Amino acid sequence: MNVKRDEFGKKNFQYPRSARVAERIQAELASMLIREVKDPRVRNVVITKVEVTPDLRAATVYFSRFGEGKGSEAEIEEGREGLERAKGFLKRMVASRLQLKRAPGLEFRVDLGLSYADHIDHLLHDLEENRKGEES
User: Fold this and answer.
1) How do beta strands 11-13 and 45-52 pair?
2) 126: exposed, middle or buried (Cβ count in 10 Å: 0-12, 13-18, 19+)
3) Res 91: pLDDT
4) What is the Cα–Cα distance from 89 to 41, expressed in whole angstroms?
5) Which residues pair with 47 in a beta bridge?
6) What is the mean pLDDT of the chain?
7) What pLDDT digit, counting tens, does each position of 33-61 carry?
8) Which of 40, 50, 85, 116 would be 26's cystine partner, CB 3.0–4.6 Å?
9) Distances (CA, A) of 117 to 53, 102, 112, 120
């Protein structure tokens, strides 16, 4: 990590604290969802990214969910409901484990990137199958 000093000699980190806290929150949430949250709706929920405001008061948690429905809207909504139900527990545990004075508020948002990538992969696979069929 590069550390520079400003004109007053104070450390000026190239990697802001909010980014470091976001990474730790992501790791803790992922661990808690696997080991501690008992709600079956959060099974197969993947925390893809966390963004934290500079004042550390709010965290936007991006997630996706894959199961038998391959990330269908119903599965994702079910995952969101499970996360919302566990929000208080998750917030308390994050604050405790990261030893933060204030627990950041958690806002859950769907990350469609994984399902979009899966959709593109299926389209490319179908295209390849069509080409092989035409060559035969």
Assistant:
1) unpaired
2) exposed
3) 95
4) 15
5) 63
6) 85
7) 999 999 999 988 999 999 999 999 999 99
8) 50
9) 28, 36, 9, 5
Alpha-carbon torsion angle 75, 78, 84, 87, nearest 10: -70
Tell me which residue has tokens 């604290």: 17
Please, how many CA atoms are within 13 Å of residue 95, restricted to the half-sphere of its CB?
15
* Residue whose pair of structure tokens reads 């000699």 in the numeric block: 9
Share of the chain above pLDDT 70, in %: 83
17-35 vs 73-98: helix axis angle to the nearest 10?
110
Q: Which residues of 16-28 are buried (b: 16+ CB within 10 A; e: fewer)?
A: eebeebbebbbeb
Distance between CA 20 and CA 13 in Å, rounded?
11
Tokens of 124: 């490319």
Strand partners, 49: 62
Structure tokens at 89: 């527990």
Q: Write down the pLDDT at residue 68.
A: 58
Token digits of residue 134: 């035409």
